[in-house]
Every structure is written in C-alpha cells, then in structure tokens.
Write a structure and sequence with these properties.
The protein has about 260 residues and is of the alpha/beta class. Helices cover about 45% and strands about 15% of the residues. The protein has a 7-stranded parallel β-sheet with strand order 3-2-1-4-5-6-7, sandwiched between helices. Helix 2 packs parallel to helix 3 and helix 3 runs parallel beside helix 4. It is globular, with a radius of gyration of 18 Å.
Length: about 260
C-alpha cells in the first residue's frame, strides 16, 4: 500500500499575517516560520515584537488611507497564505453599545478584514497561485451574547464572508477557511476581563477564571492551539477543504 501523504511543511511559501503582534498572530508566525515559511507581518505598532520576518509594515487599519496602503502592500507582496487576524474587541448590550462602537468594530473587524482578504485574493489570482486564506472568526460569531452585541455581529460576518469568498475563489484553486477560537489566553484577555468586571460587577481576574473552568476541556486555550490549526489550513494537508470554519474552543460551541 502506498500512502499519499500531503506535505505538512510551508517551505517556499510567503505567509502574510495581520495583527502580527498579538498573541495568536505571533504564535502563528512562529509556527509558520518553523515549517520553512517566509513571514510578512503587519500590525499597528512601530516594530514587530516576534521573531525574524522578511518584511514588517505598521498600519492603523482604522485609518482609511493607511488601510489603502496596506491593501497595496498585500497586493505587491502576493502572498501564498494570508492569516487575516487583525481585530479589536469591545463590549456593550443593545442598551449600551452605541453607533460609535459599532463603527469602530465594523471598520476593523469587517471592513479592513474584507479589504485585506480581497487584496490577497486579487494578488493570488493575478499570479496564478493556488493560495490559502485563513480568516479569524470567533466562537462569538456562532451565537449572540447579551453583552457583546457588535463584536458577535462582526465575527458572524467573518464566517459569512469566508463562505462567499471560498465559493468565488474555488475556480482559481484558492481555498478560504476560517478559525473560530474560543477563550484563548492572550494579552487581549486583560482588556476583556476588565470589561466583564465593569459590566458584571466582578473582581479583576474572576471572569477569566470562570470562563476557563467552564470549557469542557477544563482550560482556556493557548495561542499555540490556534496556530497549529492555522498550519493545517495553510499546508497541503487541507488541500480539499474550503468554505469551512473550524472551532478551536475546547468544546464550547457544539454545531
């Protein structure tokens, strides 16, 4: 019997990561690099906080002109893999979340996300590359939450756009999938925990402890848990997968 094992490595692949200075972004870059990929990174900071990368650009994706510059850069780089990860979080119920919060979350989590995905797709089609686009959704995109109205809606949009883009790009051999993390122990959880403390009257650190204990696997996830799935979606191991959203949440969302 001959085993037709697809390569799991990323040698020779240009992998572009947005939100590269976040916990998930840096971990994914580390995993991609360890498998031979060339890393292209962007975030809002002046410099890249991770390991070696071939190119780092600082863009504030909430600024329309900087977003245009980022789009041009992505098209120029013509990546083989896009890890479309940049996003922000905020809280508020329908009674609390105003249109200013709506604009800010949708401008980054949906508008900029879409623009960057489109830029990578245009570059891949133009270069004739059978690339992979990996969008970062969230367990919040699968269900509404009383205190997270706008954020949940943005991540539901990510899942929907992933499906539409995958169907449109399938004739070009480009795969588009999403990862839906649950509660992941990243620096962003300092902000999330403080917001829950404000809205639910909890002690600092209490919400983080509670959500970890509530996960069926008994713990919060780590950035590595997400990065390993990103490696799978970037490599030929997932060559027959597109339009899918993979939950990495320890069993939090059953669907």
């Amino acid at each position: 019997m001959t085993l037709d094992a697809a390569p799991a490595g990323l040698a020779g692949k240009k992998c572009l990561i947005t939100g590269a200075n976040g916990g998930i972004g840096m971990s994914t870059a580390d995993h991609f690099r360890a498998l031979g990929a060339e890393i292209l990174a962007t975030d809002i900071g002046d410099s890249y906080a991770g390991g070696d990368c071939a190119s780092y650009r600082s863009y504030d994706l909430l600024d329309r002109k900087q977003l245009e510059s980022c789009v041009k850069w992505i098209e120029e780089q013509s990546p083989d893999v896009l890890f479309n990860n940049a996003a922000i979080f905020d809280m508020g119920s329908i009674l609390d979340a105003d249109l200013e919060q709506y604009d800010r979350l949708f401008d980054l989590n949906v508008r900029a996300f879409y623009a960057n995905m489109k830029a990578a797709a245009v570059a891949m089609v133009g270069a004739g590359k059978a690339g992979s686009i990996i969008n970062l959704a969230s367990q919040a995109g699968h269900r509404g939450e009383a205190l997270v109205a706008h954020y949940c809606a943005t991540k539901a949009a990510v899942i929907s756009y992933t499906q539409s883009a995958a169907l449109a790009l399938a004739p070009h051999g480009i795969r588009v999938n999403a990862i839906s993390p649950g509660v992941i122990d990243t620096p962003m959880w300092v902000t999330v925990d403080r917001l829950f403390a404000k809205f639910e009257g909890k002690e600092i650190g209490q919400k983080k402890l509670e959500v970890g204990e509530a996960v069926p696997l008994g713990r919060m996830g780590s950035p590595c848990d997400v990065a390993r799935v990103a490696v799978f979606l970037a490599s030929e191991q997932s060559a027959y997968m597109t339009a899918q959203t993979i939950s990495v949440d320890g069993g939090n969302v059953l669907r």
